Amino acid sequence: MARLNINGSTHNVNAEPDTPLLWVLREQVGLTGTKYGCGVAQCGACSVHINGEVRRSCSMRLRDIKPADKIVTIEGLSATSSHPVQKAWAELDVPQCGYCQSGQIMAAAALLAKKPKPTDADIDKAMTNICRCGTYQRIRAAVHAAAGTVKVGSDAASGNDPYTVKA
Amino acid sequence: MKKHISSKAPDLARRRFIVGSAAAGGGLALGFHLPFAISPAAAQSVAAGSSEVNAWVVIKPDDTCVIRIARSEMGQGTLTGLAQLVAEELECDWSKVTTETITPGQNLARKRVWGDVSTGGSRGIRSSQDYVRRGGAIARMMLLQAAADEWNVPVVEVTVSNSVITHAASARTTTYGKVAAAAARLPAPDAKTIKLKDPKTWKIAGKPMRRLDTAAKLNGSKVYAIDLKLPGMLHAAIKACPVFGGKLSSFDQAKVARMPGVRHVVRVNDAAVAVVADTWWRAKSALEVLPIVWDEGPNASSTSAKIAAHLQEGLTAKEAYAFRNEGDALTAIAGAAKKVEAVYSTPFLAHATMEPMNCTVKITADKAEAWVPTQNAEGSLAALSETSGLPLAQCEVYRHDLGGGFGRRGSKQDFVTVAAAIAKQIPGVPIKLVWSREEDMQHDFYRPISQCKLSAGLDESGNLVGLHMRMSGQSINAFVNPASMVSGKDDRQLQGYSAAPGDAQLGYSIPNLLIEYAMRNTHVPVGAWRGVNTNQNGLYMECFMEEVARASGKDSLEFRRALMGKYPKHLAVLNAAAEKGNWGKPLPPGVHRGIAQFMGYGSYSAAVAEVSVSNKGDVKVHRMVLACNSGHVVNPDQIAAQVEGSVVMGLSATLYGECTVDKGRIVENNFHNYPLLKLADMPKVETVIVPTYDFWGGIGEPTICVVAPSVLNAIHAAIGRPVRSLPLKNVKLV
Questions:
Q1: Average pLDDT over residues B638-667
Q2: Nearest chain A CA: its distance from B288 CA (Å)
Q3: Which of residues 324-343 of B touch A (CB under 8 A)?
Q4: Where are the alpha helices (DSSP H) in A59-119?
Q5: In B, which residues are within 8 Å of A30 by CB distance?
Q6: pLDDT tens-place string over residues B137-170
Q7: b vs e for B470-488, b when ≥16 Cβ sit within 10 Å of the residue's Cβ?
Q8: What CATH number does the domain located at B304-349+446-730 have?
Q9: ipTM reported for the complex, 2 dp
Q10: Which CATH number fits domain B225-297+357-434: 3.30.870.10, 3.40.50.2000, 3.30.365.10, 3.10.20.90?
Q11: What is the mean pLDDT of residues A98-115?
C-alpha cells in the first residue's frame, strides 16, 4: 500500500512498486484525464506536475514517489477550467482530437509558472509533447495568450496569422 | 456540451434511446420511404421532457436544441460543422445547441434514417450536407406550423429567429421549446420540396463558430474509449505475430498465471495471444514475460531491400496498367529536344494516432456490445456480429470520439474483431482491450510503399511535349480485396491524375501523356492514411514538374501556369498561394521557396513553402502558405485548423516518416524511432481559403498532398538538385 498526494487529496493505492505512476493514476485512482501515448516518455500525453515540475508519469515508478510529493493532474489544475492556460486553449479552440491536450496543458502551465512571459524560444524548448493532429501553431499562440503577452486574436506576436477567405 | 449516449451511464441512456426507436418503428411503417420520417417517438419522449421533432433535431422545454450527429468526430471538426448546417436551416439559437451521437444499431433499426455513418475520404460534411440541412429545415417548418396552429393563424405569417417564433400581426411570440411537443406530432413536409437557404445568406454555417466539443478536452473529463470504466470490467493486452501472415503456435500460460491480477491467457483467432487481468498494466506486464512460440511463416525473410527490388522491377516491367494514354508520349519524349528523367520513392508509413487502438466488448448469450473509437461504426457492428456469432439486431456499438483516426480506424475494424474474439471466451464480462504503442505501430495498415519512374520531353522553346509516369507499388484495394484487383487496374492508385473533373483531376494539359501503374504487392498490410495516394502522387508529379520547369529554364510557377489554362479552379488556387506566398519576391539570405498544386477529395490545394538548408544539411521550414478551394465553407476557422494539421502530418512524413521491414516485421515501434514533428519545428502556417461556392469538396485530407512537394521543391532551390526519396532524414543534402 502506497500513499499518494494527488490534487490535494490523499490516496492509498495498492499496486506493485514498479507500476508507472500513469497507470496508478488511471487504474487505481481513476483519474483518466492523464493519457497513455507511448509509455517511454517520448510523447508527453501523460504529463503531470510533481512538486510543480512537469513530469512524464509513464516513466515514473510508484516506488519513486514519496507521500509528501504533491502530484497535480489535469483534473486538479483548476476546479472550473479557469486556469489561464485552459482559458486560452478554449479561446483559440486549440484541441482537435484532444487526446494529447491534457499533457500539452500541463506542460504549458508548468512553463508559465516558471516563466510568466515566455519567448518563442522558451516555448520551443518547453513544449516537446507530440500532437498528431498538429495543433502546434495554436498551442504557441495560446501559451502567449495565457501569458498575457499578446491579445487573443492579434496575430503579430503569436505567429498565428488569421486565415483569409478570398471569395 | 456533447452528450455521449454511449459512454455516460450507458445502460440508462441506451434504454431511453431504444424506447424512442421502438416507437419509431410505427412511424417508419407509415413513411419510412421519406428521408426524414416523423415518428411517434416524439410523443413518447415528451413525457421525458424533450421532443424528437425529427431524426436530427430534439428540442427540450428550455429551448436546448440537441442535434444528432451521425459521423465520427476525430478532431477534424465535423461534429461542429454538421451542427452548424442543421442549426442554420433550423434557425435556432446557436448558444443553446448541443449534440448527441447516434449508434449504428439504432440507425439500422430505423432503416438508416441517419444515412451513412462511416467517416473517411473527407466525406463527413460534403456527402451529408444536403440531407442534414433538409433535416434542419423540416424541423423548422414543423415548429413554425405548430406555433401557427396554436395561434390559429396561417403559417406564412409566422417568422422565427434564434428559436423565437413571432406572429407580428398579433404581437405574439413563443419559443421552440414551447411548441416542440406539438411539432413532433405533425406530419413532416416532403424533404424534396424544401428550398434550402442560399449559402450567401448563412448566419451560423459559414462562420468561424467555436467548436462545440472543446470544454471536456481541457480538464480531463472527456471519456475516450480508452478511459471507459464498466462494472466488472477486465483489461486485456495483446500481442500478435510480429511477422504479418504468421501464426501463433503455442504459449506457456503457467509462467504468468500467478502474476498479480492475471485472470486469463487466451488465444486470439490464430495469430495473437492476449493476457486478461484486473488492470491493463498487469495484463501488459504479464504479456511481456509470457513465453510465446510463433510460426512466422514464409514472410519472415522479407526485408525493405527485397521489397524495394520488387518495386523497382515494376518500373520497367513489360506489363502495366495504362491509366491515361493520350497522344504518343514515348515517341514524343524520344524525339524531344531535351529529356528529363527521374526515379522517386516513398516508404511505408504508420498512422500513429495518439490514442492507441482499443475496444471494449461484452458478450452474453444473446447480446454483444462494443465501446469503440471508430470511423466506421457500422463496420464495427458488422465485425462484432461476425465474431460474436450474434445477428446484427442483437449487437450494438457505442461510438466514442476518436483520439485520432487518419484512416486507421476506418475500413479495417481489426480492433473490434480481436476484442470480440477475447470477450467471447469470457462471456458476460466487459473486456477492455488496449494495444501498447509498440503493438499499435507494428500492426498497422500502413500507407503503401511506392516508386515512380518519370520522363519528360521539352521542345526547343522549353515547352512540355510529353510526360511518361510509371508507378510501381502496393495497392490498397488489392490488400482489402485481392480477387478484385488481379488485373492490377487500380484507379485509386492513380488518385490525382484523373482526366475526369470533380474529385481528383490532374490540373495540367499535356499533349502526349502516359500514366501507368505496375501493381507490386507485399506482405505488409496497407490502408488509407490521411490523403491516401494523393500524398505520393502529388509528390511525384509536382517534384518532377519542378525538375522539368528548371530544365526548361522557366520559372516554376509560370511553367505550371502555361499548362493550366483548361483548369481554372486549379489555377486560381495556385495563384492564391503564389500571391500570399510572395512568389518571385525577395527572401532573406539562405531562404528559398517551393511551390506545388494538386487535387483530391473534391478540393483544390496549393502551397508555397519557405525553407532553408544549413551548411550541415539541417532543414528548417520557416513559413508555409496553403490555399484551398473546397467550394463551400462551413467553418473557416476549422478549415484553417485542418490545414495547419495537414502541414504537421505532411512535414512529419517529409522529414522523418518511415516504416522499414526486417525479418518480415516492421522495425519502428515507438516515437523514438518513428519521430513526429514537434512544436519547435512548426513553421508559420497561413491559410488562404478561395471558395467558389459552386461545389462541395472535402477538407480533412486535400491539403496534405502539397506539403511535401512544396518543401522538396524549396530544398531543390536551396541545394540546386532534386531530392527524390523520403524521408529527408535518410538523404544527405550537403
A1: 98
A2: 14
A3: none
A4: 84-91, 101-114
A5: 229
A6: 999 999 999 999 999 999 999 999 999 999 999 9
A7: bbbbbbbbbbbeeeebeeb
A8: 3.30.365.10
A9: 0.96
A10: 3.30.365.10
A11: 98
